């Protein structure tokens, strides 16, 4: 984003982790684990509850950290997002703040929360979205997924559960002590079918290595540009029983015309934005010596320069689309249509 006029020296953007997951998955337990760990960071926690009587704040352990509670009877994904912006702007004025955790309601859709860091200029200048971390209750999630498989899309929580998994950058499969090893293996395979690009971590009582849930850098353009592309080359041949939710990976060898790419992304967002949970990729643009990193959430996307291409590296474009009812053939054709015209030397 461009700002005009005299600017004060900028402080590093504060990383924000969104913790989501269905009711009882262990989000507050993970928050407590983070707050009591010896990491030396100052952390602010934003608690959101779906209900009129606040409870979660009383469940968070007593620490020196700031706990900000939003108990206004609705989820952060609804009208309370304006409250979130106000809270973040207030936290930005606090000294020595190293990190923010946003614990959503179990019924929340984390996508609108993630979009806040794209659409609000003041928030985007002070904070950076680190990752969406979804907790899954290994002992109780299977019936929800089974109900979704059976077509109960509007009568139960299956859709919320599936959507929270699909949008995650990291999935923490919690309460693994409640299931047998074979059940856990089956569940992990099922989760990979819903979201092939998210890293999976298992835990009991939400006791995880903090490096597995903090500092992921899922929206870090520089880190993504220099990554080893594992997040772009995951095997997406494994599918969940319900084909509506899944990921599509596209790779093309042609360099792309930026204007054509921007037009196509705009058309795609207009037509399928509600179903497009995440979009990320490394783009090879014609006439550019560096790769471009593509990040998107629903109808919003960013395309920014990243690391230079090395001399021996093939310049190809790779993208992963995560969402509902995505058509691999359509997406591949759409991206391929953005190829720049080949320039042939005159005889």
UniProtKB/TrEMBL annotation:
It catalyses: GTP + H2O = GDP + phosphate + H(+). Residues 245-339 form the CobW C-terminal domain. Keywords: Chaperone, Hydrolase, Nucleotide-binding. CDD domains: CobW-like. One of its GO terms (molecular function) is hydrolase activity. The keyword Transcription does not apply. SUPFAM superfamilies: Hypothetical protein YjiA, C-terminal domain, P-loop containing nucleoside triphosphate hydrolases. InterPro entries: CobW-likC_sf (IPR036627), CobW-like_C (IPR011629), CobW/HypB/UreG_nucleotide-bd (IPR003495), P-loop_NTPase (IPR027417), Zinc-reg_GTPase_activator (IPR051316). It comes from the Bacteria. GO terms for cellular component: cytoplasm. Belongs to the SIMIBI class G3E GTPase family. ZNG1 subfamily. This is GTP-binding protein. It comes from Streptomyces diacarni.
């Amino acid at each position: 984003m461009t700002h005009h006029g005299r600017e004060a020296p900028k402080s590093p953007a504060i990383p924000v982790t969104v913790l989501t997951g269905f009711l009882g998955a262990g989000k507050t337990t993970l928050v407590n684990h983070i707050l009591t760990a010896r990491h030396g960071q100052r952390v602010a926690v934003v608690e959101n509850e779906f209900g009129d009587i606040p409870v979660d704040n009383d469940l968070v352990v007593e620490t020196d950290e700031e706990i900000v509670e939003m108990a206004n009877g609705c989820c952060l994904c609804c009208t309370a997002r304006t409250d979130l912006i106000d809270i973040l702007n207030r936290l930005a004025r606090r000294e020595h703040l190293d990190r923010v955790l946003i614990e959503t309601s179990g019924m929340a859709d984390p996508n609108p929360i993630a979009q806040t860091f794209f659409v609000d200029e003041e928030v985007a200048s002070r904070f950076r979205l680190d990752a969406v971390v979804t907790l899954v209750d290994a002992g109780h999630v299977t019936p929800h997924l089974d109900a979704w498989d059976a077509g109960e899309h509007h009568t139960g929580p299956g859709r919320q559960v599936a959507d929270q998994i699909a949008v995650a950058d990291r999935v923490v499969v919690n309460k693994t002590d409640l299931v047998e090893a074979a059940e856990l293996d089956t569940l992990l395979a099922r989760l990979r079918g819903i979201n092939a690009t998210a890293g999976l971590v298992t835990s009991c009582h939400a006791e995880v290595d903090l490096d597995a849930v903090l500092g992921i850098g899922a929206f870090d353009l520089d880190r993504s540009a220099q990554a080893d592309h594992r997040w772009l080359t995951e095997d997406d041949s494994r599918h969940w029983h319900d084909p509506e939710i899944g990921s599509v990976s596209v790779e093309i060898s042609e360099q792309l015309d930026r204007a054509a790419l921007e037009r196509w992304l705009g058309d795609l967002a207009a037509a399928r934005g509600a179903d497009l949970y995440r979009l990320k990729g490394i783009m090879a643009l014609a006439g550019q010596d560096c790769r471009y990193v593509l990040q998107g959430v629903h109808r919003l996307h960013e395309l920014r320069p990243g690391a230079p291409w090395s001399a021996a590296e093939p310049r190809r474009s790779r993208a992963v689309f995560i969402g509902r009812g995505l058509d691999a053939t359509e997406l591949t054709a759409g991206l391929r249509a953005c190829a720049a015209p080949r320039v042939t030397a005159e005889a």
